[in-house]
Design goal:
single chain; alpha/beta; Nucleotidyltransferase, domain 5; five-stranded mixed beta sheet; 18% strand; binds 5'-O-[(R)-(carboxyoxy)(hydroxy)phosphoryl]adenosine; binds zinc ion
Length: 352
């Protein structure tokens, strides 16, 4: 256990200075953050390289890695924040949705820690937390005014959320099959790139031509999305060309990545335009791992200029899974007097 620094926060806290420990373990990142009065004092994440060669997260390996990481990650977050555990006001943890074995590690740890300290443990919905990351008090962030729309795009979900207030987050559109992050990761696997492929495709795309290849875009009713057709057509297209030229991927990697990224971005932007037209809302936020994508971020900024949208983007460390967003959601629970109970079981599926 690393030695804790001299605590900066001790004893009774004035209102708004609650110290919240946020714990995230829904997929393959073990993350812990310490928040004080809405500001992040530390946000520590341990990733899991073990999945790289499998092209996706292996649930059993993920749970075991969380077991290894959870104690040192929480200790390091407290140490980096300069906070003693006895000064904490509450612990917030991801209750779901996610991989059950992964969720069980973080939620059991969080509830045990809260019980031993005699403080509340707040269960947090992972996808709500992605949206609420916009309310972290940080000089780089301007919190969106309600109501706003949030495009929440991750490895497991693709949603358009109508946010009327912190506790009124409604999904008004979502993917009918694969998530946007899954489309990036599965295409990357086909290209021989390790998991998670999204950030690697982003990097290669920067040097490629987005108009080099074109892929079909789905026709979906309402505000929903679909990415499974794109996945299939990308696979058929690359396999057809590899049969003719075994070096096709190697010689066209950047163009393939740029064209795929442009297609995914276009699908997401089309959905957002429809949602904005339907709701009349032009305050648009983005969250989740895929919101770190440079093509998507540029498209959002361009729409802000062309259509007068007010765009809210997160710093990259708050896009991908992180303990800070869980602490932010916990802060709202604490302030609103939300129920907390150590009896809540982790849930793999949880409707928003
Ligand atoms: O939100 P997140 O960290 O975890 C989930 O809740 O799923 O999102 C992970 C997803 C992965 O699919 C990863 O490839 C994707 O976000 N991702 C990106 C980028 N950074 C992360 N996709 C495209 N471009 C990026 N820069
Ligand atoms: Zn996530």
């Amino acid at each position: 256990m690393p030695k804790l620094q001299q605590p900066r926060h001790k004893g009774a806290l004035t209102k708004g200075e609650e110290l919240i420990l946020g714990i995230e373990s829904s997929c393959d990142d073990t993350s812990a953050a310490v928040m004080c009065g809405g500001k992040i004092l530390a946000n520590i994440t341990a990733g899991q390289a073990v999945h790289e060669k499998y092209g996706g997260v292996v649930p059993e390996l993920a749970s075991r890695a969380h077991q290894k990481h959870i104690v040192p990650v929480v200790a390091e977050a407290l140490r980096a924040a300069g906070v003693e555990r006895s000064a904490l006001s509450a612990v917030a943890y991801t209750r779901g949705p996610g991989l059950l074995g992964s969720l069980l590690v973080g939620s059991s740890f969080a509830k045990g820690m809260a019980a031993s300290l005699g403080i509340p443990a707040f269960p947090v919905h992972h996808m709500k937390a992605h949206v609420l990351a916009h309310f972290i008090r940080d000089a780089r962030l301007t919190p969106p005014e309600f109501p706003f729309l949030c495009l929440t795009v991750s490895g497991g979900h693709t949603q358009i959320v109508h946010a009327a207030s912190p506790d009124a987050l409604e999904v008004i559109g979502e993917t009918l099959d694969d998530a946007a992050g899954e489309a990036f990761d599965k295409a990357a696997k086909l290209l021989g790139l390790p998991y998670p492929g999204g950030p690697l495709i982003d990097r290669c795309a920067a040097a490629g031509n987005p108009a080099a290849f074109s892929f079909p875009k789905p026709k979906v009713d309402g505000l929903n999305f679909s990415f499974s057709g794109l996945k299939t057509s990308f696979r058929n297209f690359t396999e057809k060309h590899i049969r003719r030229d075994s070096n096709f991927v190697k010689n066209n990697l950047n163009d393939l990545c740029a064209s795929l990224q442009a297609t995914i971005t276009d699908i997401l932007m089309t959905g957002l335009h429809k949602a904005s037209a339907q709701t009349g809302i032009t305050r648009i936020a983005a969250a989740g791992g895929v919101s770190a994508n440079s093509g998507l971020r540029e498209a959002l900024q361009a729409t802000a200029r062309e259509h007068g949208w007010q765009i809210h983007l997160l710093p990259l460390e708050y896009c991908t899974d992180n303990g800070a967003m869980i602490a932010a959601a916990g802060m709202f629970s604490l302030q609103s007097g939300a129920p907390h109970s150590t009896g809540d079981a982790a849930v793999a599926r949880w409707k928003m």
